[in-house]
Amino acid sequence: MTKQTKSQPRNLAHKLIESHLVSGKGKPGEEIGLQIDQTLTQDATGTLVMLELEAMGLDQVKTELSAQYVDHNLLQTDNRNPDDHVFLRSACEKFGIWFSPAGSGVSHPVHMERFGKPGKTLLGSDSHTCAAGSLGMLAMGAGGLSVATAMCGEPFYLNMPRVMGVKLTGRLPEWVSAKDVILEMLRRHGVKGGAGKIIEYYGPGLKGLSAMDRHVIANMGQEMGHTATVFPADDVVHDFLKQQKRENDFQRLEADSGATYDMYDEIDLGKLEPLIALPSSPGKVFPVREVAGEPIYQAYIGSSANPGLRDFAVPAMMVKGRQVHERVSFDINPTSRQVLENLVELGHLTDLLSAGARLHQTGCNGCIGMGQAPATDQISLRTVPRNFAGRSGTSEDKVCLCSPETATASALRGVITDPRDLDMSYPVFDERTTFFVEDRNIRPPARHPELSVVEKGPNISTLPTFEGLPDSLEGPVLLKVGDDISTDDILPAGSRILPFRSNIPAISEFTYTRLDPTYPERAKQYQDSGSLIVGGENYGQGSSREHAALAPRYLGLRAVIAKSYSRIHWQNLCSFGVLPLNFVTQDDFDSIEQGDNLVLKGLVEALKSGDSIFAENTRTGERYELTHNLSERQVRMVIEGGLLNMMRQALAA
Questions:
Q1: Quick one: signal sequence residues (predicted)?
Q2: Which among 151, 196, 551, 627 counts the fewest CB atoms within 10 Å?
C-alpha cells in the first residue's frame, strides 16, 4: 500500500496499517513491519513469552500497554499450574506488565472491557486476539516469540494482506444472532477463505450489532484463517466504552466514503437463519433445521467466541421457569468477573441455576479441553470458536458450534433444535439496563519493578537453544499428513498436556500423538541429524500456540514441505529455525511416502539468492522443486537458528 493522499478514499484497514507502518511499501504479499501499541498474553502461551523476555535480557516492556491473563490453565490438580501462575505474576512485576489473575476472566473480552482502544494495534500470543477488531483496532494473533519481540519495542512483521470488504445490510431476525453471521461467512468461504486477508465489515447493518456482537464475528474470523477482522469505531463502540467508564478512550474511526476493497461480499442479515458447524471443523456449516432432532448430551454457553452479557442473559430468559432436559449437561462458563457479577445482580444466574445449569469458573475451561469433556459418542453443542477433533478432551468427540439461542433451545428439548420452533416469544435483552463493575483484581504494573524477583517453580525449564540451518540436510519424512492439519493435531491442548507448557522436553513427548503415537520416539532417533514432515493445504491452522513449532523442532524437525500454510504457524516455524518449504508442483506431494529419505543440498545459498531448492528422494530417485515465501529477514532467521538467536545478538549489541 503506497501512501495515499488525503483526497483518495481509504478503507479502515489501510488507515490502521498506514498509521503504524514502519517498514515495507504495503504491496500485497510483501513483508511489512508494524509498530505494536499493545500486547496480550495468556497463561498457556505467556509462560514461554516471559522466559523469552528473560532470555533476551529485557528490563521493561516498550509497548504502551502489555497485559498478561490467566484464563486457560485454571485446573489446579497438582502444583504445576499454580506454580506457573506465581511465575507469571512475578514476571509481570519485573517487566512492567498488567496482570489479570485466575478468576478475572477470558483474555479477549476482559481486554476489550478494560484496555481496548480504537486506532491501536494489538498483538497477542493467542490466535483469537483478532476479537479486538470489534473496537476499531488492528488486532492480530501471533506466536509468543513474535509477541515477545514486540514487547521489546521491535516491529511485528507480516505479509501485507489484501482487504475483503463485507457489506452488512438489514437486521438480524428473531432467534438469529452474531454467531450465525460468522457461521454464514464460514459456510461461504471455508476455513481457508480468509488466508492473506483482512476482513472489514461496513454498511447499514452494523447499527444493529453491539460491540460484543462484533466481538463474536471478529473472534471467529480466525477460523477462516484471516490476518485480522476490522469493524469501525462508531456510535456503537462509543456506547460500549461509555458503559465501561472509558469514554475518553473513544475516537471515531471509519472507512472514507467511497473507499474500495480488493474483494467484496455482502450479507443481508435479515435473510440469515440459525446455523450450526458439525464435527469436526468450523467450516462444516449447515442450517440447524437440517440436522434437528439428533439427541444431545451437552449444551455449553460461553468462551471468547460468545462472551457478551447478552449471550448469557438471553439463555437465562429462555430457561426461566423451565427445566433443561434430564439427559443434558447445561454448562455455563461466564467469560469475565464483570459478566458474572452482572448476571448475579440482574437475577439471570438464579434463573440459569434453577433450570438445572452447571456453573463453571470464569475462564476458557472446556473450550481448551480444561474440563467439561463430553461423554463418548455423545453430541456436545458449544458456543466456542473451534471444534477440531479431540480438542474437547474426548477422543473423536462430536462437538458442534452454534449460537447461545440454538444451544439453549436444544438443552430444553434434549435434541438439536431450531430455536424458531420453540413455543415462546423471543427474549430481547437490553444491554443498557446493565450496571458497571470495575475489575478490581486486575493488577497494574509494579511501581518498583527493580525490587521484583521472578519466581520459578520446579516445572519451569530453561528454553532450549538451537543451532543454525546446515547447508545440506538429509533425513527421513517421519510423517506425511493431509489438508487442514491443526496445531491441536500437532501438539494437543487439554488438562493432561498444557501443564507442561513451560517444560519443552516434557511437552514434546505429546507431539503429533493424536495422529501417530509413535512419532516422538521415532523423532528422537533423528534429534541430532534432523527429520522432515510433508503436509497438504493449510498446514498448521488454528491456535497461535508456538509449542506446535517449538516441540517438533526440539525433536529434530528441520524442514516442513507443504502445499500451503496457515499464517501464524508458518511464522512460528521460521521463528524457531524450521524451514517451511512449498511444492512448486503440487502433484509431487502424492509421490512422497512416509519413511522416504530426502536429500536437500545448497540450502543456505539457495535461500539467500531466492533460487529454487531441490529435494531428492533416495527411494525413487525423483527430484522435487521447492520454493519458499520467506522475506530476507526470515531467511536470516532460519539460517541463524531462529528469532531468539537473532534477538539475543541484537540486544547484546
A1: none
A2: 627
What residues contact residue 636 under an 8 Å CB cut-off, 6+ apart?
646
Give the three cell numbers for residue 185. Answer: 461467512
User: pLDDT-derived band of residue 233, with 50, 70 and 90 as boundaries?
Assistant: very high
d(CA 399, CA 542): 16
Residue 2 binned pLDDT confidence (cut-offs 50, 70, 90): very low
Cβ 136 vs Cβ 253: under 8 Å? yes
- Give, for 561, the enclosing helix (H) or strand (E): strand 557-562
Give the bridge partners for 264, in sequence order.
165
Other C-beta atoms closer than 10 Å to the C-beta of 426 total 15
Q: How far apart are CA 133 and CA 121, in angstroms?
A: 9
What is residue 266's three-state secondary structure? Answer: strand
Reduced to 3 states (helix: H, G, I; strand: E, B; else coil), residue 41 is strand
Residue 161 grid cell:
494482506
Looking at every residue in the chain, the average pLDDT score rounds to: 93
**At residue 55, does pLDDT exceed 90?**
no
CA distance 625 to 424: 62
Comparing CA positions, the residue from 304, 244, 308, 215 lying closest to residue 438 is 244
Nearest in space to 549 (alpha carbons), one of 644, 651, 443? 644
SS3 letters across 53-96: HHHHCCCCCCCCEEEEECCCCCCCCCCHHHHHHHHHHHHHHHHC
pTM for this model (two decimals) = 0.91
* Contact of 220 with 123, CB cutoff 8 Å: no
- Residue 159 has what DSSP assignment? E
For residue 216, the number of C-alpha atoms closer than 13 Å in the C-beta half-sphere is 27
The burial of 590, by beta-carbon neighbours within 10 Å (0-12 exposed, 13-18 middle, 19 or more buried), is given as exposed
